[in-house]
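Hey, resending since the last one bounced:
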Amino acid sequence: MQINRINLSLLALTVVLLNMQSASAETSRCLAPLPEFEANADLTENQIQVKAKRAEIQQDTIALFDGNVNINNSKAQITADKATIDKQKTELNATGDVNYRDKSMQVKSNEVNLNTDSGSLKMSGTTYQLTQFSGRGSASEIDIDQAEGVTLSDVSYTTCPEGAEDWRIEASSISIEEGELWGESINTVFYVKDIPVLYLPYFVFPISDQRQSGFLFPEISNSTSTGVSYEQPFYWNIAPNFDATISPRLMSNRGAQLKTEFRYLSERHAGQVNLEYLPDDREFISNQDRYFYRYIHTGKLGENWLMNLDFNGLSDDNYIVDLGSDYYNRADTHLYRTFSLNYFAQNLDFSMSFRDFEIIGDHPTNYRALPEMKLDYINNLAAGIEFRINSELAFFDNQMEGLPKATRFHFAPSLALPLRSQWGEFLAEATLLNTYYKQDNIENTNLEEEVNRTLGQGRIFGALFFERQANWFGESMLQTLEPKIQYLYTSFKQQNMIGQYDTTRLLNNFNGLFRGQEFTGLDRISDNNQVTVGLTTRLLDKNNREQFKLSLGQIFYLQDNKLLAATKDDDRSALASELDWQIGSKWFTRSELQLSTKTDKVERSSVSFTYQLTEDKLVQLSHRFVRNLSGEMIDQFGVTASWPMSRDWHWVGRWYKDLSSNRTIESYAGLQYESCCWSISLITQRHLSNRFDTIGQQSTEEFESSINLKFRFKFSGGEGRSGRREMLEDGLFGYRQAYLIN
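The structure tokens again:
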């Protein structure tokens, strides 16, 4: 093999550089990008093309080239002042301003010696710059052997630009053996400026993108709850389909915690097990042991059968609040414990699930479904009519003794006529709803042991789509007008003799107006005699991108509800509206509003207004209001901002205030200095702790503060954007991407 062998070995050299990861360089102030390399596509794999001003052949064994020597093959290029090819020794020697180029790197050398038979290559007095990474360095000698691999002597590496080497790595030798997953480095010294700060006589590093065991980046933080926290993950590549991450965590306030994650994968199954354990928490007088566990599994049991498992648990209500979690947040009140089995066919779907919960804090216990089975069938009859059956069989139990239990069977056949076209949509549907209950533990209640409830429901829905060309703000737009109307009738039957096992009231937004049901589950089905009217208009630009959308809708009740749980004070629902507007290229707004037409008061609203100049230059204002949520008013205003202060300094801030209690509920600020080869960020945060007391009540008065300092060397350069995005998305509320239409 000839020069093309060099390319394979030098590709390995690009991953030598101390466990780097790929990223895009900030070329405006870092290493200038190399021009894209294009090899000679006219050459075959084993061909070598040599061009020079002068050439001399001696006895048909030695070829001498002089002046602008250019040596090419299908993968790489060498330029030099002079070159010699010895046919008998199968050697190529290039001297005088030698340059090597391929798609991975560029190497400058004083001299290059290549054995054209074995493919072994030696370069002396080299400097190199990588193409895929913003890395560069030097080596006194680079030896590449087809069989043995790559050896670099007196090698250095940095991502800093020339003349501004804030850090660099030097090693007496680095070797990469052919076919190995690991490289070796001897006598390695890490320098900050010219000061040596770390010496390793020997270490190994990955030279392949295959998963390999080793230490990951540590996580360091400081908070009121944990104190100074240091977490050091270790990744264990057990087998191609098994791996684990073991993360010891030291906390100055609480002690040593162990976090583990185990993952497995087979042809039909995949799963993950998480175990976290903190023995003798020093913050508790009794030195309480604390733990968290999680097991998820998905599997395919046959051609049409699927299974899923999600099982979670923890030691106490404050575990997530005090120690954090990668899977839940401090606002969660329930942890899932579910198992489901599903069957899918063309006209038939079946599912069986067991649903249980781990309750956090003093919240009402949910009923467990042990099990819940659903069977849905659909078939197309003549004249476009659809015949459907929705059925369910469930047993509901509760962890609290003395509460009612129930077995519920539901059967709902329906006939539907759906018609759809480009200019409109029509649906006529009739459904019979039959539900049978067998209830236990009903002493001292008004519930009945057996209830058989049968209801009839009819629905007619229609929508039209109109279009016209319009001129808005001097630009030609396509405007749509989409009126919708629905009539819904549901018969009435008294239901107060039925317990509420999986029933909560639904909240209406614009789309919810056409849902036709006010409650989740089946325990309460409201009687309806109502008309729902909605209207949507859109503006589409010449590229068919949506720039503006406004929707308005309202329900008109033709008679009062007889079902007590669904009674209302007005003959119409709140007016629901949604607005999405891309105001130019930098301004975005999104809002939802529910306005009571009886009191002219806003019941619910949310609005966000965002100015985004670039990915890192943005300001977002947001407000959320709920007049009555479980007896409390929610009235919160927030500001999020991200803005560079200079070329190297960037600032991120976030502030949320509860207007009803007139207090700040979260404040967050991050300041980051970033050069092209290292960065440092300081993050401060203060938010409600939301801890639970001994009887499970959640505190709304205590706050938690934290300060985090993050320092990062960019071994591959150009990692700034990810660091800024982390600062922007951290925190209790976090930043939500500005709403973009399409």
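The first helix runs from residue 4 to 13.

Sorry for the duplicate.
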